[in-house]
Amino acid sequence: MIYETLQILKEQLENFFSDIGLGKIIALENIALWESGSDDATRVDDKVVISLLKLEEEVILRNTPHFKVKDTKTEYKNPPVHLNLYLLIAANCDTYDKSLRSISKVIEFFQGKKVFTSANTVYNRTNVAFDVLEHFKFSLELYTPTFEELNNVWGTLGGRQLPSVIYKVQLIQIERDKKLAASEVITHIGGTLNDMKQ
């Protein structure tokens, strides 16, 4: 669900940029390629790049029930993992003013649409990775790091900074469809109770 979420966001942002005349300049890549000196660095040239910075488990939802009652059977599964994703969206455009305009438009787009669901989002359903994707819901929240945190992020990614913004994508659910066990539902208790004498 991590790739699918990022790909949906990329497609949505790319459609918005095309509609406003900025072109198809959105890339789902590792921004650390920017100063790597490798041949892959060209994939982020003149692009607005979406990169995954960090995963974080939503621990509040860790203790959800780990069973479902289906017909007359109880199915036991491990509880799903709920994740928050931290995304860095950096503008590596050919001019600084275009980079600033691009970041401004990214913020404008996510200000207008913060919640993405299978009902309100049109995406490329022919993508092979989306075969198992039926229902989804996630929301974006602007994350504002301190200067020190931002310096650490860019230091880890290779040094110099680009105009960028960080978003927290909340509540991505990952669940493997694997039953641990199944049993009949307990519908009544039989037997008799005897008086206990001391």
Strand order of the largest sheet: 1-2-5-8-7-6
Major beta sheet summary:
6 strands, mixed
The helix content, as a percent range, equals 10-25%
How many E strands?
9
What's the helix count?
3
**Secondary-structure element order, as H and E?**
HEEEEEHEEHEE
Strand content: 25-35%
User: Runs with pLDDT <50, length 5+?
Assistant: none
The end-to-end span amounts to 60 Å
Q: Tally the structural domains.
A: 1
What value does the average pLDDT take? Answer: 80
Q: Rg from C-alpha positions?
A: 23 Å
Structural class, please? alpha+beta
**CA-based shape:** elongated
Outline of this structure?
The protein is built from three helices and nine strands; from the N terminus they run H-E-E-E-E-E-H-E-E-H-E-E. The protein has 198 residues and is an alpha+beta fold.
Plain-language structure description:
This protein has 198 residues and is an alpha+beta fold. It has one domain. It is 23% helix and 30% strand. It has 3 helices and 9 strands. The strands form 2 sheets. It has a 6-stranded mixed β-sheet with strand order 1-2-5-8-7-6. It has a 3-stranded antiparallel β-sheet with strand order 3-4-9, with no helix packed on it. The longest helix has 18 residues. The chain starts with a helix and ends in a 14-residue tail after the last strand.
